[in-house]
Design a protein that fits this description.
The protein starts with 18 loop residues before the first helix and ends with a helix. It is built from 63 helices and no strands. By secondary structure, the protein is mostly helical. It is a single-pass type I membrane protein. This is Golgi apparatus protein 1. Its main location: Golgi. InterPro entries: Cys-rich_GLG1_repeat, Cys-rich_GLG1_repeat_euk, GLG1.
Amino acid sequence: MCLSDINRTGNAGRTWWLCDWLTQSPAPAALNPAAAERNPGAGASLPRRRSAGWKLAEEAVCREDLTRLCPKHSWNNNLAVLECLQDKKEVNQNISSLFQLLWNYKLNLTTDPKFESVAVEVCKTTISEIKECAAEELGKGYLVSCLVDHRSNISDYQCNQYITKMTSIVFSDYQLICGFTEKCRDDINALRCGSISTGEKDIHSQGEVIACLEKGLVREAEEQPGAHAIKDECKKAIMRVAELSSDDFHLDRYLYFACREDRERFCENTLAGEGRVYKCLFNHKFEEAMSERCREALTTRQKLIAQDYKVSYSLARACKSDLRKYRCSVDTNMPRAREARLSYLLLCLESAVHRGRVVSGECQGEMMDYRRMLMEDFSLSPEIVLHCRSEIEGHCSGLHRKGRTLHCLMRVGRGDMGAIDPNCQRALQTLIQEADPGADYRIDRALNEACESVIQTACKHIRNGDPMILSCLMEHLYTEKMVEDCEHRLLELQYFIARDWKLDPILYKKCQGDAARLCHTHGWNETSEMMPPGAIFSCLYRHAYRSVEQGRRLSRDCKVEVQRILHQRALDVKLDPELQRRCMTDLGKWCSEKTEAGQELECLQDHLEDLVSDCRDVVGNLTELESEDIQIEALLMRACEPVIQAHCHEVADNQIDTGDLMECLVQNKHQKEMNEKCAVGVTHFQLIQIKDFRFSYKFKTACKEDVLKLCPNIKKKVDVVICLSTTVRNDTLQEVKEQRVSVKCRKQLRVEEVEMSEDIRLEPELYDSCKQDITKLCQNVAFGNAQVIECLKENKRHLSSRCHQRIFKLQEVEMVDPELDYQLMRVCKHMIRNVLQCLKQNKNSELMDPKCKQMITKRQITQNTDYRLNPVLRKACKADIPKFCQSILNKATADSELEGQVISCLKLKYADQRLSSDCEDQIRVILQESALDYRLDPQLQLHCTQEISRLCPEEAAAQEQTGQVEECLKVNLLKIKQEGCKKEVLNMLKESKADIFVDPVLHTACALDIKHHCAAIPPGRGRQMSCLMEALQDKRVRLQPECKKRLQDRIDMWSYAAKAAPAEGFSDLAAQVLTSPSKNYILTVIGTGVALLFLMGLLCGRFTKRVTQELKDR
């Protein structure tokens, strides 16, 4: 019989219908010449027996073992006895004659012509149906081989059982397999797999020879050091033997004896045949109770399956029609060719599944088992054993079981444990594609066990085995539901899935059409792609955010999946292949200490200007993408969930985000629902946006054309905003008919300006100029809410020159456009209408919010320090300022602050009644406001700070200022020591003569008297003050006691002021007279004096004229 070419399948049943022939089979002594030649002395060892009716049970050497090990009903059947004795390990190993007897019997049986004759008789119908077998020449043993090769097509039960039983006899000894010894003799000797001579070893050791050859074949495939190169014809024979033994583990003698006890332990109820015992043992391979010898034998068997899928009976049978259907056929002349490898079968059929083709459920089940097998044991992949040897020895030794070594290698591949050899990286990537765990997480046993609790709690709503389980786990990464071990296993797997878009089955299903249309891809398992797998996803997401006008957009379903992947990749920088490849150096240089979730990308964004060009480009593109769809930032979205639900849920619910969500988060950054993590994340994104205007999607979309036209070559957002704002301001001032900046850009520009005013860090030039001042003066003040800017404003006198100039410029802008004053707008948002002027007018209203009132006062103090900060005053007094205060302007520089000098100058001219009406109105308002609160008079505060602290501490400490400090200074005028302060108080007295409203204490005391006696007199120019003075002098008028007292005090003060500050010239004298409450009296006296002088002149003139005439007459 020649079985070397057999490709058999079958079921090991008992062939009781052969009893008659086996009972009368020839005795072992009747050896043919060839057998005798191969086994010298074999026949001599046994006496001659009659050939008919001879039974093995009658031999003395068998009787003891037969009685002890085999059931009595089998003793009359030679084949049953043979099967029993050769499968029992307990056979007496010391009786070599018994082994010789059994071996000679089997050899004689397989060479007996009756062996083939019985086949012709039993399989008569089958032979006629199979043309190849009918054509075989009888007498050479080929008929039985042909029948075994076509056993899957044999429907006759008896024929099937006959073939099965005969093969089990042959497989008990490799020397009984026709041609095996000749083909593998040299390799057996070279590998020291045993002796060719019969009888030197027991019957059970013969299986070890084949096992040794199989191990040699595996070592050669793995290119292990010192591996022997087995001849091709022997390789073919070894693989055929493995295929022949694929359905019944009894036929793999080495594995059978190595795993008999384990079979009883784990697979006691598993019926033999159709590869069921193999599969059961494979499933328990890593159990603690599994013997090491059995585990080793199973691993060798699995490695052979990896080299040729036909070594797995169940897989070959289940997938036979699908392999033919999808042209995954095997070249029969090359049994170990690429097409025969398990990996090729899996990739070919997985490709069909991913393309939506129908693959039988039985075949998919078998594929699932072997994909899980590949993920459990890295050693089944020769490429990994070959290329990852140093990584395994250095990092992953001792972790072999249940996929732990593979996950350790994946962790090394991620870069978490040092560098990895590129060949090892490619081998890992190939294995992940072959096993395809993305389609079913259960294929990855290490992941399945680590994440079981998370799946049961967080993903219980998803069907078990659904590809969305992995997405669900990613969504819960870094949440309280995630456990550490699951987190590590998940990131290790996702690292490799992220490098080939096809390994995410949902993404591939939804996007394969778009990928073919836009990125020119081919099949799932196509090797001639125009671009690498990692680049396909980059191509997809570039098209995901195209506008309708740009065209070539992704389908809706594909875009949803692309967004899902982007959300996942944002969780870990290593899940973005392009980012990690281009930024490896920068990550090590700038971000080596950033190990928390999401920190590495933030670090790269922070160092954007310092990155190498390639890295800067990819980080910039990703940041630009985030600006359009901030939901990509999964960690930020989780942190901001409360504020989103409270204030931004409508925007967040939109499937297409166009930057609205981030804008909403910025606008609500200081709501009570905002937590620290969210606020930090939003602020960080704002800080990143200032690096490039493209990072602000709404601003970029609204102003892109304006930037190209008006601000070319400007990249930084803050510079672009300044450029466009300057253009808008200039066009407004020049009153051009058509603004150069578009309406939509102006609208978005306003949003950007307001956002920038919220945090000093969003204005880099201001921040850089004031860094030292912030450290010195505002160290404990938090950024955001414009608090640092407010702190700098309040400490303006102590700022460095550079910072002072910047703050002044900022205040100038804010006073022109109060909406850019973040603190003002925030504190007064419930009270404010449009401008600061409205707030000032309603400051003392009963409805005014106290905090808002306090903020208005702060802005008034700022505004009064320089006329340029008061746009209304500046416009009203544009002619008066250069006319009366030019000397002050000449001394000042463009960036210096005037500390209220110009306003003080205008106040004095107001007292002299020399201002224009518009300017007079504005100064009157300032005088009235500053009379109630001394802080609104910069010059007074500058020169009188110490005097106020010394003379009026209680009045200054009052929360509500109503002119008490000014009144205190006036009363204590004689006690004031500093000349500068005394001068300011005298100026106050001078100003109060011009209008009673400037003197709030006096006005309050005389309010009723003004109403009764001066109601018809309009305010201003000292008219009401003069009315009161006349009433005071008129004894017929009775003034209120408090008013009378206050008036008398004012007269005394003015009298002292006149003495302390006499007129410096005629103009000052005239001004003092005109502004005096007694100007009518003074003017009457002056007029009377002038009239008397005139009359005297007339009289004296006539007298001198007569004297002159008399002299002439003489």
